[in-house]
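Bit of a strange request maybe. I'm writing a small parser for structure token strings and I need a real example to test against, not something I typed by hand. Could someone generate the tokens for this chain?
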Amino acid sequence: MPGRLNTRSVRFRTTAGAVLALLALLILSAVVVTALVAREVRQAADNSLIERAEDRSIVLGTGVAPGALTQVVGDEVVVVILGPDGSVLASAGTPDPSELATLPDGVADVELLVDESGHEGEAGEEPHREELRAAIETLPDGRRVAVAVEQEQTRRTVAAVSGVLIIATLLTALTASVLAW
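Reply from user aminoacidic:
Good idea to test on real output. This should exercise your parser:
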């Protein structure tokens, strides 16, 4: 019968095998690319966070008062200036910045009590615990600068890339199967 799909034919089996092999290869490629992109996005976010802490450290080193550097900017949630002994010299965004005093220099995940009442559009919100990504920079005199941001933007970026890759993989497999048939 014309128009009826013959699943026993060599043509069908060859096409199906090729499409399945291509689909497996595309899925593997999508997983690898997603992992690489996720790593790069996270590294870029970490580098940006480190630069923010370094910039504030440089300005603090010129003699600017610590309180002048704790204004949260952009996606920053917490900014803290610590003394050489771990005492809080100035802070914004958290009622308990002492938790940052024990972190080593560099970037780390931290859960802090966050008070966003001073942030634009956040009035009236109660302090709450939140997972943040923090960068810590120590000045030669021992004072430390900590800047922390939410990780939600990084997660959304990685999720968007993953979604695009899944759709592209399925469309490519569909296109290949139609062309191979």
